[in-house]
Amino acid sequence: MLGHGQEVPDDYFFVNASASSVLLRQKVLKKCRNDIFSFLDNENGQIAIYDAVNPLASGRRSLAKEFAKHDVQTLFIESVCDDVRIIEENVRNVKISSPDYVGWSSDDAVKHYLARVNAKIPHFETMEERELNFIKAGTSSKVDSYKADASLSDQGIDYAKKMGAALINHRESERQESIDRGGPDVPLKRLTVWTSTRRRTIETSHYLYEAGYRVRQRSEMSQLNPGVCEKMSERRIREEYPEEVAKHEADPYHHRYPRAESYHDLAVRLEPIILELEREKDDLLIIAHESVLRVLYGYLMACNATDIPRLSFPRDEIIEIIPASYNNEAKRIFIPGLPEETIPSSPEDLKIPVPPSQTPSGMVTPMKLGSPQIKANTSRLNGNLTPEPGTGSLLLVERALRD
Questions:
Q1: What percent of the chain has pLDDT over 90?
Q2: Which of 165, 381, 395, 403 is the most buried (most CB within 10 A)?
Q3: pTM for the predicted model, two decimal places
Q4: What region, left, alpha or beta, does residue 187 occupy, with left being phi > 0 and alpha being psi -120 to 50 degrees?
Q5: pLDDT for the residue 142
Q6: Per residue, what are the HEC states of 268-288?
Q7: Catalytic residue among 11, 51, 180, 265
Q8: Among 47-51, 141-145, 147-151, 226-230, which stretch is predicted with the lowest mean pLDDT?
Q9: Is 154 a catalytic residue?
Q10: Residues paired with residue 221 on neighbouring β-strands, in sequence order
Q11: Are 343 and 314 in contact (CB under 8 A)?
């Protein structure tokens, strides 16, 4: 579309481009769409990837309408990243190797490409079109985002140290009590720590790692995905999604909000974790988001599914679950010396699942759910018997505050 030796106009990638650049852009887009139609119609193509910015809702609707005329279904993927370090690294490793920057120095090419990106940001409209199919993914440095992976705050670091110290002291105290009662003077069982792959859970385990304990990251243990309700108040959720709220109140365990996970979805995701921890012979500490702890505790203590979304784990205690012949036993390990503002569970988390308007205030604490009903050496996971459980204690603690 450009003659031999001609370069793309300087304003081609900018929203407020000149009329000639807009016309050229439309020609390029039409050619791309025709290539897609040819691939799908004439070359037995199944899936085509249309890589473009599409920053405006009106443009996305127009694009979906155009594809629909050819019986092509569209799925938009919005990749979100506001971490400057990651963006610049991506530009250096990928973007500036394009033909646009042949003969450019790396620094000049990066500067020029970032200028393109920054020019689009004020005009970008995030995906909210309910009539379109879309997925949002990525990494955020904003601490109030589900995607955020921020470091611990100073208060969070202090919490991690006190939690680790409390656990070490508790284990040694129990060992000494056993000896005082006439038990053998034997070393403690090995303790392994499992965290999710999120930075704040890993940093919560750092004190124990430095003390010589083994730490493993488990990707399955990421928190429940809140979907479109992220950062929405309960009032707004009720106003915009009254039918979803009614469904949730009827079945808070299985219901999922749009583009979100249900607690049942999370439980299915955690199946490999559950199977492995049942085989664990040593003691195991799990540091995770409260939604993950709810599912794990609910499974191990045979809670009703309707109770699981309402479980709460205050940060001033570690829940110890001890396997027994007929009923697993749950105990509290108190973490001393924490400031009052640290103790409430998940103060910065989203208020979903939405609690029913007419239910009593407050959450159900794990220690108030009555006697668990787990039979010796067997349990059920989606109707299938799992292997014989191990003999090590399982300790649950919520990750510390992030920065």
A1: 33
A2: 395
A3: 0.62
A4: beta
A5: 55
A6: HHCHHHHHHHHHCCCEEEEEE
A7: 51
A8: 141-145
A9: no
A10: none
A11: yes
Pairing of the two strands 394-398 and 283-288: parallel
Residue 194 is given by DSSP the state E
Burial class, 135, CB count within 10 angstroms (exposed 0-12 / middle 13-18 / buried 19+): exposed
**Residue 36 has which token pair?**
């897609």
Rounded Cα distance, 309 and 298, in Å: 9
pLDDT for res 302: 87
Which residues, 6+ apart, have CB-to-CB distance to 37 below 8 Å? 70, 72
- Helix, strand, coil proportions of the chain in percent (round to 5)? 40, 15, 45
Q: What is the pLDDT of residues 120-174, one digit of tens each?
A: 788 888 888 888 888 887 765 555 555 556 788 888 899 999 999 999 999 999 9
Take residue 95 and report the two structure tokens written for it: 């973007």
Is residue 35 pLDDT above 90, yes or no? Answer: yes
Cβ proximity of 73 and 64 under 8 Å: no
> How many residues are there in the chain?
403
The radius of gyration of the chain from alpha carbons, rounded to an integer in Å, stands at 26
